[in-house]
Amino acid sequence: MSRVRLIIEGESYMTLEGVAECYQCELGWLREVYEFGLLGDGRRVDRSIAIELAMLDRVADVLRMTVYQGIDLAVVAVILEID
């Protein structure tokens, strides 16, 4: 299990690998969501990116909208009011 909580500057983070495992989604898809700017500012941890645990609800929302409802990431960004 790679779902290890990381503490960075007093905030809790999880790597994208851990998030993908937790939500049983493809890591490539999750990286695309992150690169689209939908998961906030991440932190580099070794060879990975870590996102704040507060973003996990956002992951669930984006997963539901894109994978299960077929909404494009650009539309999801508008829905979530992300520039």
Q: How far apart are the termini?
A: 34 Å
Order of helices and strands: EEHHEEHH
Classify the secondary structure makeup into a structural class: alpha+beta
Radius of gyration: 12 Å
Mean pLDDT, all residues: 89
Shape: globular
What's the helical proportion of residues?
A: 40-55%
Enumerate how many helices there are, as a single number: 4
* Number of DSSP-assigned strands: 4
- Strand arrangement within the widest β-sheet reads 1-2-4-3
Strand portion, in percent?
15-25%
Low-confidence stretches: none
Task: Report the biggest beta sheet as strand number plus sense, adding barrel if it closes.
Answer: 4 strands, antiparallel
Topology, pairings included?
Layout: E1 6-8, E2 11-15, H1 16-23, H2 27-35, E3 43-45, E4 48-52, H3 56-68, H4 73-79
Explain what this protein looks like in three dimensions.
The chain is of the alpha+beta class and 83 residues long. The chain contains 4 helices and 4 strands. The protein has helices at 16-23, 27-35, 56-68, 73-79; strands at 6-8, 11-15, 43-45, 48-52. A 4-stranded antiparallel β-sheet has the order 1-2-4-3. β3 and β4 (48-52) form a beta hairpin. The protein is globular. The termini are far apart. The mean pLDDT is 89.
List keywords for this structure.
83 residues, 4 helices, 19% strand, globular, alpha+beta
In short:
The protein has 83 residues and is of the alpha+beta class. 45% of the residues lie in helices and 19% in strands.
